């Protein structure tokens, strides 16, 4: 009788062990279901990136009218320049920006746009030779530079290849308040009449 009881006890213990194992396995599977609840968190970055993408689109939309706006165009042989903006900032300077397109059959470096000033010679192919002219006030404004002689302008670190377009900018001292019409000139380009707009 004691042997039978021992066998029954062992069977009961085995059944309990198997049942416990199954319960733990089911609980483990339940944890996997809880992991699915984490999926929204994983998708959160994608939704935030989508929001970021929307923000980028909004920024592009606000920037597009400015870049599409053409204040002036000038040509010198196969090189054409477009001025897209001339913005007066509160710091007492004007930032002029636009694009240059090489329509020629060879690469273009912008060497003839460099300044003749000894202080700016190290800038190489750049807009260091650009200027703004206030015809009414009879004043010429040269590109700003830092104490090391580096112009506050685009430096063409490489050539503008055939058919390529490159963005550029140059900063100048601001003409007096109320002066909005000036001429922009660089290299052998003919002067281009532009209007300065007020910054925010």
Automatic annotation (TrEMBL):
Residues 31-67, 180-200 are annotated as: Disordered. Keywords: Signal. The keyword Signal applies. Residues 1-25 form the signal peptide. This is Lipoprotein. It comes from Streptomyces rectiviolaceus.
